[in-house]
Amino acid sequence: MSQDFFSPEVLRDPHAFLRRVRAEHPICWSPQFHGWVLTRYADVLAATKDERLVAVSAASWLQRLPGELKQQFEPASRCLRWWAGLMSEQDHLDFQSALKKYFNPAKVEELRPRVQQFTHELLDAAQERGSLEVVDELARPLPANVIGELLGMPPEDRALLQRWSADILSFFQQVELEGLKRGQRSLLEMQEYLRPLIAERRREPRGDLISVLVSQKEGLFAREPEAIVANCAMLLFAGHETTSHLISSGLLLLLQHPEQLALLRDKPELMPSAIEEMLRYDGASDAMVRVSKAPLELGGQRFSAGETFVLVYKAANFDPEVYPSPERFDITRRPNRHLAFGMGSYYCLGAALARLEGQICIRMILERLPGLRPAFQTPDWRPLPPLGRRLRSLHVAF
Ligand code: HEM
User: Fold this and answer.
1) Given CB 3.0 to 4.6 Å as the disulfide criterion, which of 94, 135, 230, 381 pairs with 219?
2) How far, in Å, from the CA of 370 to the mean position of ligand 1?
């Protein structure tokens, strides 16, 4: 039996829909995705760890567009095919080994004072104004400042990043032509913006991320100059939108669960586990796609090579087999090995950075805004089909 992942019912309450799918057809065939949808934690986890399942390039869906459209989006396709080096396993390994040099725990820890400073500045401005709309005035500018700094973007240009990131997100929604065109425009604009920065780092390397990429002596980044510019754009996007969602939706969860907010104020040492629960409960990545390069068995079923699998992290993170009372938002939940950052060979390289930003930002909000309370009737969600949503705004009083 097939399930309609794009029905309005799903967008209204994805968890109710996923609960039903997981209980009735934990591995179900979806003609909409041309693939097998996995919703049980055990199956999703096994899939992330199975080396026979490989991630697909961000450009692959563009290759399947009908003739004229495919042509129209060829420029985006040329950029996206370098993203994370996913066109070949060796490129992906090169991509990871270059970036792991940068995203190590010590390097991320070095960023702590800057993240604190950025958060303070944004909260100073809110306190001066006497009002705060969390999405536009904190959750979006903070990660933009951080990733902009990693890439060595001058501060006055970092606002550009927020528009690019929103446009690229709509590009991946693949729902309407205008969104696709806007996304492609922003993607190319971002690349053109980055080119002179990259050229400058080639002439004069510093300690930043671009300098690490241009200094590679072999592999993907040494071979393909376009892979450098494309992956800088990829990092701007990967590091911005997701972290911004963590901050805004995480704060909303606390406002919706005042007893958890009070507990966190009382015991700030619970902050790391509170952030993990926010990631489990409403992480930014709903699902990821893999393709089998060899036959395999999963969840007791056999599959041949060349099959597509949709790993629904959002469903796995609410699996009652692993999480007792999954619908309960519980900042003390332990263990909490959620899949919000994926797992296995494609595990998020920016996880430590995202955690650092989330922890610092939420802690400072609670410290500096003791009277924090909602200034909205109902959350202002924007649907992100098929399974997601993002906050358009989040007004708070303090
Ligand atoms: C709360 C914030 C974030 C979330 C929820 C998130 C989520 C994810 C997920 C689920 C994946 C794995 C995709 C898969 O399974 O195929 C991933 C991969 C990745 N993320 Fe994140 N991410 C976040 C923040 C960041 C940040 C801040 C950066 C960098 C600045 C980043 C960079 C990456 C990269 C480079 C990959 C690709 C890893 C690879 O293919 O080897 N992410 N992220």
Assistant:
1) 94
2) 32
Q: Is the pTM of this model over 0.70?
A: yes
Look up residue 244 and give its amino acid.
Answer: S
> H or E segment at 28?
strand 27-30
Ligand 1 centroid to Cα of residue 338, in Å, is 14
Instruction: Ligand 1 pocket test: pick from 221, 309, 341, 343 the residue with the most ligand atoms within 8 Å of its Cβ.
Output: 341
Sequence ranges of the domains in the chain: 8-397
d(CA 359, CA 247): 9
Write phi, then psi, for 281 (nearest 5 degrees).
Answer: -70, -35
Superfamily the domain 8-397 falls into: Cytochrome P450 (1.10.630.10)
Phi-psi region of 122 (alpha: psi -120 to 50; beta: other; left: phi over 0): alpha
Q: How confident is the model at residue 64 (pLDDT cuts 50, 70, 90)?
A: confident
Mean pLDDT of the chain: 95
Q: Whose CA is nearest to atom 27 of ligand 1?
A: 239
Distance 286 CA to ligand 1 centre (A): 12
Tokens of 174: 């693949």
Residues near 45 by Cβ (< 8 Å), separated by ≥ 6? Answer: 316, 339, 343
Minimum CA distance residue for ligand 1 atom 5: 284
Judged against a pLDDT cut of 70, whether residue 147 lies above it is answered with yes
If you compute the radius of gyration of the chain from its CA atoms, what whole number of angstroms results? 21
